[in-house]
Amino acid sequence: TRPIRIAPSILSADFAKLGEEVRAVDAAGADWIHCDVMDGHFVPNITFGPDVLKAIRPHTQKFFDVHLMIAPVDPYIEAFAKAGADLISFHVEAGPHPHRTLQAIKAQGKQAGIVLNPGTPASAAEALIQDVDLILLMTVNPGFGGQSFIHSVVEKVAQVKALIGDRPIALEIDGGVTPETAPLVVKAGADALVAGSAVFRGGPSAYAGNIDAIRKAA
Ligand code: DX5
Ligand code: ZN
User: Fold this and answer.
1) Is 198's C-beta closer than 6 angstroms to any atom of ligand 1?
2) Domains of the chain, CATH where assigned
3) 80 pLDDT above the threshold of 80
4) Residue of 30, 76, 78, 110 with fewest CB within 10 Å of its CB?
């Protein structure tokens, strides 16, 4: 069995103590830290920007998986790269020049990922696949934590896995991931799982158990 990366989304953390929360999920066994950036324009919610990322960066050595739900994307890439992102992913729906955005992320020396909303077909990844390190498939409509997993996306996970073939590209899933839904997407080919509410529920003393439960189910 291949290793499955668990990426807690700090969207579900206590924003009043983000540094502590990041240290807590690090100690609880998180593989990556998933950072959800929302602009109130591409998605109907607003979270945080590069300065917040920079503030939490010293609290962990873990890989920062930065999910940009913003439009436009390109003017902000350098700021997120400098703030400490290891990988920057953006939505193919966010603009007409996704390949230019990939080039801009690579120019910063960072890994690059593309994200597909539930309503976007697998084929949207085809023309970009040679230049990405990660493909993220949304299993909720982006904007909020705690939504229900959209089961119809599971078929697309298998389609994108087939497109990836044996290329070294991570296939990540985001939205409604729980111990119940994790095995569905892992079976279809996912190797990285974002989880917000399923990790942060119950407070810091529950994080290790919550992460383990997803890992074991996967
Ligand atoms: C949704 C975000 C997700 C979200 C996941 O717009 O991209 O990362 O925080 O939260 P849960 O796991 O609660 O669905
Ligand atoms: Zn996300």
Assistant:
1) yes
2) 5-217 (3.20.20.70)
3) yes
4) 78
